[in-house]
Amino acid sequence: MKPVVTITLENEMDLVLIQKRCGKLSELLYLTLSSKATFITAVSEVSREVIEETNRGILEFSLENINNKYALVATISYPKEFTSINSQEGVKYARKLITQVEIIQGETHSAIQLKLSLPRSSKLDEDRVRFINLYFVNEDPVNAYDEVKRKNYLQEEQLKEWRFLNEKKTEFLTIASHELKTPLTTIKAYAQLALTLDESKCGEEVRKYLKKVEMQTNKLYNLIQQLLDISKIEGGRMTLKHEKVELKEFIEDIVSVHRQVLTTHPIETKIAEHCYLYIDRLRIEQVISNIIMNAAKYSDSKSSIFLRAHFDEKEVCIEIQDEGIGMSELAQKNAFTKFYREDGVSEHYAGLGMGLYIASRIIEEHNGRIWIKSEQGRGSIFYFTLPLELQTKHEVV
Ligand code: ADP
User: Looking at ligand 1, which atom is closest to the CA of residue 352?
Assistant: First the structure.
């Protein structure tokens, strides 16, 4: 039974809406004045009790059709825990006015249903029911309160839909990334295996191609890993495993790996000594690697990358500087937004705009800050901090 009219019962002002809408519905059903008054009073009495006990009631008016015998039904539902409503004075009074009153117990909600059999003079048939439904779909707000209520309802519905779609998207991202990762791991493993074969089985030419396969699968693997990270972040599933690291050793280890891979860009470091941090080692390594790889990607080969780290009594500050294309002010503001790429960048540089978003979320999770200083054509400096109080907090633990 699809409701013709629905009114959420939140406060006393809803009683006015009941009077007006139930009044109009009675008119459209050609009810006599006394039937109209009786039904409105009974519905209002029960609704008042529901509003007094809980502000989460719902009133639905519907037209029941059993073998072409129509009835006007008002269903007032409320959360199940408010059992006392059934025995309130208002409900008792409604029972005296309307003979057909039923209590319905659902899993999470209970409902009081008031039914009024409609006489033939109501002239109801399917066309008339359709007309009445349409009347309430197109009805103007009854008063200013009704207008605000409708807007809120619409916003809530949109928000619900948005949340639903967002959950589905995250779910899709997770499943798709996992499905892509498995065959990719196999491709990479076979390429690596073939590279270990001797010259008679794997000649120079084939070796060159296999290295390309390996390099491209690595790139794809990183992208998939980023997609998985985004779905983790959005699903609130990114957990950190803090451990104690010595700053200089930690950063120099990361840089030495990059020096082997990034032969195009010299990396110079200046790292403060005797500084211990409690961080998720792999996640912070991911942040540093991402910024270093960007520094190389967005600058000419042979230009240098500088990595500095210093600390005071509160925090460690890590700076990564490049001599590359630089960023506009707009790009500096938006670079940490998901999927953001500066205008014109996509034509010359590959990427999806996920790395810095993930990096900023990792730094946020560590209670740090991340920002950029840059000028177009004059290189960029990426800064991020990690608070030292994490250290004391974890040392006590
Ligand atoms: P991607 O590099 O895949 O696009 P990121 O999230 O790492 O994604 O970066 C977002 C955007 O910020 C880039 O598209 C680019 O416009 C800009 N950017 C990032 N790092 C640099 C840099 N070192 N120099 C210039 N622009 C950069």
Answer: 3
